[in-house]
Amino acid sequence: MNILYIDPVFGISGDMMISALIDAGLPFEELHKLLKNIPLPLPSIVPMKKRQGIIEGTYLKIEDSDTHLSISKMEEIIKGLKVKERIKKDAKGMLDIILKAESKIHGIKRNELHLHELSHIDTLIDLLCVAKGMDYFKIEKVYSGPIPLGRGTIKTSHGIIPNPPPATLEILSGYNVVFFEDALELTTPTGAAIVRYYVKDKNKRPVMKIEKTGYGLGTYKTDKPDTLRIFIGKDKEPQYDEELWVLEADMDDMEMEYIGAVAERIRNEGALDVLYFPVYMKKGRIGMRLSITVAEEKVQHLLDTLFAETTTFGIRMRKELRNILRREEGVVKTSYGSVRIKNGYDRQGKLIKTHIEFEDVKRIAEAKKIPYRVLLESIKSEPLEIEPYVF
């Protein structure tokens, strides 16, 4: 598995991340070809080799520009680019993170937002170029060290605001940060969005074989090097997509008719999976084991729910690793009507399984008085080409 580790020595911004990717071997020509697709006049962008103390790295010199874009224009440009879907998806995903944070801190709806500094064309350039770099190196997983933040205040188009900016703090909620005494904006909202979008495991330090290293340089002059460092290489651990928690409780004194109801309530409260099955307990009594798979951020809530809803006095907890197929969900038209399906792809992008939504089969079968199994097999025999669908 190709992995990338972000070492934000003195913070992270979009241009420093691009510089680090170029320094690690991303040809600038690849970025130039990408940016030529943007139907707007672009500022001059020149990667330069520079030194900060004993460290040599790449600095991205971007010409000043007065081009500002609305949110809808940014989204329109990203959607219309003739590039790989992954690049568009990643750029749009990072933009969505910024917009969600700005919407929350300003207390207004997304469609009412008006970005100031972040409306600059530099933001669009940053998002697209970072997404291109991740695709170029075929990065499958990204990790990061603690994110540096400054102190004091900074001057923006909104006026004087606390440092770090509220949007940056909102985006990095739940991530490990470290505060420096420097009254500088060490991490920008765009830099924070890069971390939040790509870094799914917030605490792990990977065991990896390093193949490439890149240094992206900034312009701050302090006693610390203004640099962002990245490492690209291979993961030496077994491949997995996410870490989850399994919560389990055994009970032999709970009314059986309530087990199913509790399982359904726990599922609705955010559990990824809920199982219950008979087990032999003390003195040969038959009990029920309730086993719940849950993401880390939901663990405490579901622990509280389990204690409140069941008779158990104790809950076992353990971490487990999970591999998941890349999924594509959509709707297909069949001779019986439209049904939702889910396709699963392996790491090489090969379609290896298709699941047809049971509720749609059930709905059609009941309306047309057809046995479920007969209808399912008939739908499977038809070509199932996904059309765009919003769930």
Task: Record the SSE blueprint.
Blueprint: E1 2-7, H1 14-23, H2 28-35, E2 45-52, E3 55-62, H3 71-80, H4 85-106, H5 121-136, E4 141-144, E5 147-149, E6 153-156, E7 159-162, H6 166-171, E8 177-179, H7 189-198, E9 208-217, E10 227-235, E11 242-251, H8 256-268, E12 273-280, E13 286-294, H9 299-309, E14 316-322, E15 326-334, E16 337-345, E17 351-356, H10 358-368, H11 372-380
Parallel strand pairs: 1-4, 5-8
Antiparallel strand pairs: 1-10, 2-3, 6-7, 9-10, 11-13, 11-14, 12-13, 15-16, 16-17
Can you describe this structure?
The protein has 391 residues and is of the alpha+beta class. Helix 2 packs across helix 5, helix 4 crosses helix 5 and helix 4 packs across helix 7. The relative contact order is 0.13. The strands form six sheets. The chain has a four-stranded mixed beta sheet with strand order 4-1-10-9. The chain has a four-stranded antiparallel beta sheet with strand order 12-13-11-14, covered by helices on one side. Strands 15-16-17 form a three-stranded antiparallel beta sheet. Strand 16 and strand 17 form a beta hairpin. The chain is built from eleven helices and 17 strands.
